[in-house]
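Researcher: Please predict.
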Amino acid sequence: MTDTEKDLPVKRVTKKEIRRQVYEKLAGALAEYKTGINEKKFDNRLKKVSKVFALDIAKAVKNGKRRNKKEDSTEN
């Protein structure tokens, strides 16, 4: 990694943005099942599932960054 790459600001993705992205992907993937269930229930369940997934993804990203920092500090 060069010095210029280290100086670039890293865009942080919030839990809310992750939740929105997961919701959109699931809604697209499960669109054909939307007609079999009441749309309001379907959207509500997708919101709940996307919230759970987003929390896990955010934790994994956070732990990954933490591990990278530890590895960087041990290399010096």
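Model: The chain has a mean pLDDT of 81.
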